[in-house]
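ZP: hey, is the magnesium ion complex queued? I don't see it on the tracker
AM: it wasn't, my bad. submitting now with these inputs:
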Amino acid sequence: MLRHAPGVFFAQISLTGRRRLASSVAGTAAKYESQKLKTTTRAATITTTSASANTVAHARTVSAQSGRNLQQKFYENRILDRYTAQEPKKITLRQLVLFGRQLTEDKLVASANYVRSELPVRLAHRISDFQFLPYIAGTNPHLKMVYDLYWRAFDEFRKFAPVKTLDDNRRFCDNVKRNLLEHSQVIPQLGMGVSECADLVAPDEIDRFMNQMLISRISRRTLAEQHIALSEQFDQDLRAHLGLSSAEGFAQMASAPRGFATQRIGIVRADCSVAQVVNDCALHASGLYEESHHLPPGTAPQVIVEGHTDATFMCIPAHFSYIIHELLKNAMSHVMARYATRLDSDASALAGIKSAFGSEPLFPPIRVTICSSHNDIVVRVSDQGGGINPGILPYIWSFTHPLKAKRLHNFHAVNRMEARVDESDSVSPLMSFGFGLPMSNIYAKYWGGSVSVHSLPGYGVDAYVQLPRLGNVVENISARRAQVDSHES
Ligand SMILES: Nc1ncnc2c1ncn2[C@@H]1O[C@H](COP(=O)(O)OP(=O)(O)OP(=O)(O)O)[C@@H](O)[C@H]1O
Ligand SMILES: [Mg+2]
């Protein structure tokens, strides 16, 4: 649709969108006209961009010729406009936690209907972002694939009948789960799409687009996963209450006995231990690097946790773990690379971290300092890996710098990515996507926090995560494109 019939894609865009698209195409063309692309395909593509006026005129002609299809698309865009006119109804972690107290059938049904009506609104805004992309990016097959996935999900959720019973809710949850699975291709597809468009679209524009896509994706998954977790926990509790095994009793469970309530908080933790998450992530990251370097257990750099080691806070552990794991992976990989010559020793001599160097550890340790204040949790990850290459330092938060875009190209080797700790088992830590820092920052920003990095040239890196402690910050999503900014540190 997008790639093969530009007119059709064009027809899906609202009037304002079309005006802005036309000027965007012209602007992009003027800016990038001078770029000479080497391959024939790219040369052909850029010719299309340079001839922006012709492209727009051609698109309109093709649109006009597409008859019924055009009417259909026009109708679809009217629907999309109705949804983009709505603001998302934002939530806080605290609301999620409070909601699960005294969870009843009525509350679960209300939760299902909130998710059912909220997902299409949030998807509609992102579909609209695609339509505002410069035309040339809209023709990229990977971006088109995500665009189509979003349209399908948007249609499916907006047409889903209101949930009235537990049975309806089970069907709704099945739908949501299927969508979550299907959309696990989105990150690699976006990564490939962006890497292929890096020299065709203004870097700021594509970064804004990626930030917006990814933060909104986290928000939709949070709502979906929270609702699924609550539903599954409620089912379990109800089965236990009725004395039913997991395999039986759907008919009897069509609705809960009146007054049945349970205490559940889904994927959120009200008192997540920071030190516990750091220790778990350290263990996981060490295992990954030891395995990929064929080293005995205990060889990877030691992670020392200090400061307020008894601190707890309200968070979604999956999000917080992702950030800590990425920072630890960065620290470990650079410390190990800096002292790589020490790895040349006979692997058997490396058993135990001290054996090869007498009483000295093989690598300098990574220090993780936890600081808990009334409002915030701050975690500092300090390594002695030599610091960040000054050539790449200005671009570490960007998806589009040529160096970063090249790394995103590695997504061609990955089918699915959900940006979670456990999936890294199937992706070699030696493969660099240039994705860990920007994605960590997006997770932190979503909950009103931030990730920042200070490079100490020739020595190491101090990376900081700051997150609100009390769960009372509303999710940081904006419907409008212009309101999302990229990293400012
Ligand atoms: N602790 C560190 N020490 C030295 N350089 C670092 C450190 N952390 C990040 N960098 C630099 O910043 C770049 C971007 O980091 P980022 O985590 O976003 O991507 P990556 O580690 O290359 O790939 P990915 O995280 O997707 O596996 C890295 O490629 C590296 O050059
Ligand atoms: Mg990384």
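AM: back. The longest strand covers residues 460-468.
ZP: great, adding it to the tracker
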